[in-house]
Amino acid sequence: MAKLQGKIALISGGTSGIGAETAKLFKAEGATVIVTGSSQGSVDEAKTTLPGIEAIVSDASDVAATKALIDQVSAKHGKIDVLFVNAGRAKFAPLEQVDEAFFDAQFDTNVKGAYFLVKHASPVLADGGSVILTASVAGSTGGLPGASVYGATKAALRSFGRTLAREFAPRGIRVNTISPGPIDTPIFLKNGYPQAAADAFLENAKTRIPLARPGQPDEVARAALYLAADATYTTGAELFVDGGLVDI
């Protein structure tokens, strides 16, 4: 039997990269999958590249939009069994170049939007379900120049994972965090960086990662499936999918 047969899975930021690969894997395992994208263009593209998966435009940084999203999913499907909070921004700059707009854009999406998505989903999360938060190794390691804001947003998600796991435990809902290392996804291009910068980042990462390569989105997707379906006695945990970057 498929691991997620009959389950309803909502993936924010699911139109490309890690979210899209997870959506395809969850669907293959029997789930009804809904993904969100920040623009009509990304959602229209997902309707072609992710057949059989429902795609909805929703701004992850807008608290009212997250509420409207949950209301829409609840009205159609009645519940959410797996909530994968994956939408995020990744922008990098040294301290002297960070302004308020740069700071707020990342905190609004990565922290505030993520938190309120879980809050709004709480009443419709099925008892015994699973919440998965996408953080980053940047939230657990220090010393990455230019990542002071981004790393802080991901550290906040890791903190949410611990505390919300305790709050949801009476309902049997498990809350866990995935912290990817450098993954070969379109996130740099989506955040306005040129291809050359993305290539340089991944090439440099090879020198820091014990496995000597960046990860692939499907490798993170398999970790998400583990937390969603197999890790039935795991909550409040952080799973590093990073080629050994943090622990070795």
Could you list some keywords that capture this structure?
single chain; 248 residues; alpha/beta; Rossmann fold; seven-stranded parallel β-sheet; 8 helices; globular
If you had to describe this structure to a student in words, what would you say it looks like?
This protein has helices at 17-28, 40-49, 63-77, 100-121, 148-168, 187-190, 195-205, 217-230, and strands at residues 8-12, 32-37, 54-57, 80-85, 125-134, 174-180, 238-241. The protein has 248 residues and is an alpha/beta fold. The protein has a single domain (8-241), classed as Rossmann fold, CATH 3.40.50. It has a seven-stranded parallel beta sheet with strand order 3-2-1-4-5-6-7, sandwiched between helices. The longest helix has 22 residues, at 100-121. Helix 4 (100-121) links the parallel strand 4 (80-85) and strand 5. 46% of the residues are buried. The chain is globular, with a radius of gyration of 17 Å.
